[in-house]
Amino acid sequence: MMGLLWCAVMAMAVALAFAHPKQPSTYHPDDVTYPGSVTVFTVPAAFPTSVFSSYYVKPGPTNQPQPVLYDPVLNITFPFNLTDPKHVPDSNDDPVIFPQPIANISDATGEAIASAAVSEVSRIFKSNNTGGSNTCSKCIAALAVGQMVARLAPTHFPSGMVSLCHSLKFSTYSSCELTYGPNGSGASWAQILAKADVAGLDGKYICSYLHKNVCEYPTVTSVKAVFPKPKPKKPAEPRRSGKKVKVLHLSDLHLDPRYSVGSEANCTSYMCCRYSEPPSNGTVPEISVSAPLFGYYKCDSPFYLALAALQSIGPLTGTSAKNPPAFSLYTGDLIAHDDENQASRAYVEATEVAIWEAFKAYIGGPIYTALGNHDTTPADYEAPHAIDNNSTLGSQFSWNYAHVSSLWAHYNWLPSSVAQQASTHYAAYAVSPPHHPNLKIITLNSDLYYQHNPFALLNATNPDYSGMFSFLVTELQAAEDAGQRVWIVAHIPTGWDGGSALPNSADYFYQIVERYSPHVIANIFFGHSHEDQATIYYRNNGTAQTKEEALVTGWVGPSLTPLQNLNSGYRMYEVDTGSWEVMEAFTFYSDVGSYTNLSSSVDGEGDGGQGEGPVFKLEYSTRATYGPAVNWPSDAPLNATFWHGVTEAMERNRTLAELFTQYQGKSSAKSKKCETEECTKAKICYMRSGSTALGKQCKQGYGSVQ
């Protein structure tokens, strides 16, 4: 009788929680123990100045700090003008790398060739007789003309691209001049056109990139992955130890050292919360939302928010520098969303130092990082070594791989041998955490399969052109042979709504996951979307999406940055040290909407005052929130079978999908809701889609809550 009564009480609690999806679930089963000393932590308003040794500009109630940053690897101190909020540069002195011309021609001849090419491309698009009347055929023909310029007169290629960008309306995040010009990414585009198979699949991808309405985006052309050994018919099942450790998952901080307190936070053009010069006529521009000290929805993270989040981790997770998690994961994107001309190698390097110095102050133990698409310059761009056998073009981003890997070794997060591996493998590496030799963590540079990396469009018929997947297979096979479990850590998710990973690459990755799951791969971790998401990988490329076929979960970590219209958040896992399965996951967040009230309450000199800063709190426990709807045993892991059960529960109860969507935006008041049957079906479809091809089959338009 007592058992029936208990079940009835629990069912009522779950029903009440789901009946009001706008509020975090309040269901707390007795077997859930929360990890920290508190579930709500109010960060002190005062900036913790001891994190950095000195400052060009000290923190205060009306300004962000400007710390003096010393780089222990490069042995330099970065100058103040690199991040001065009032003097953001519009150019840099970074090397501009063009492909070698195939002929020795004069500058005048090169200019004439480029001019003639622009005229010919314009004629092609105006003509109806180019071997095919559709616009895709015209674009392919135009690429052949552009390739001639890139090969004969590469230094004149950018000016031609800018001209065509304006006349043909090419896609651009910022402007034609920045995306394709000589002071932007024009040199990179010259490399890409010079090396591309413009008449083949490369050409179709490039045309689709340049203009969404020119060529239909290519569908997947599956390439069969080759493995050193066949999958064991009866692999040994991983055994749980019964001992759990804590693992922290941070992602997408996007630190903005140029954040300007009091500037326009609700701007209409990128980026907000940046200083703008007063009009020359002396009038004061009207500001609709004054940028708060701790951040805003349309802005990247200021120093105040970054340090506030770090201060909250210890009390909320029960960890500290002296009592650290077993290790931490950072799934990419350290750098702010600056335009191409505002970023530089030095700006990237300085941000890396600033963030990791702050991490070191608050998070003990090793931190394993996968680079994101913004962790380079230009953002999104990473060249495969094979573009020229790792010569000038193939090694052009090695400055960053060498820098980050050396920093990781300096902070004792990686052994020197692993850091050396990272420096030569696009900053990707494989490592076993201290005291846990039965686990191997494999990080990837996912920019090499990112849809918005133009270099990734080269040799599109070969999804492993970069060699990244060969590296992954080699490490997975070694782990299988050694009886190790594996966590894969990357930035770009391979599935969801299909908007991030290249189709062939995502398909290839899915084959690798299927080959080595579930007996080797225990979990996969991503970032990038800035949202709290989960994706399930199944056998047979997801053709049968059932709990019996579910293999492994892709956990997408919530972002620390509020951009765009999100709250700030992070996650902590409790993990069994035998099977390395996630047994519990706690997600924490801070309401960014409350920050506008904090700035005015902060007073004091120099450090931001002694008042109250942001409140970080436990948002939800994954087990407590979804477990009752799945009837999940208290001692069972939160694995792919669990998450498939969650999607089945969503099919039965739409309010669960509403709750999932609320958490997707970290309970932001500005996030989109999911209140229709169509949205619910789409959300379930995304969660079951571990590849681009699967995600594209879902109803589009519901993937993001931003």
Automatic annotation (TrEMBL):
An MF annotation (GO) of this entry: sphingomyelin phosphodiesterase activity
Domain Calcineurin-like phosphoesterase: 246-531
PANTHER family: ACL091CP, SPHINGOMYELIN PHOSPHODIESTERASE
GO CC terms: membrane
UniProt protein name: Sphingomyelin phosphodiesterase
Native source species: Neurospora hispaniola
Biological process (GO), any one: sphingomyelin catabolic process
Record's keyword terms, sorted: Disulfide bond, Glycoprotein, Glycosidase, Hydrolase, Metal-binding, Signal, Zinc
Keyword Zinc: yes
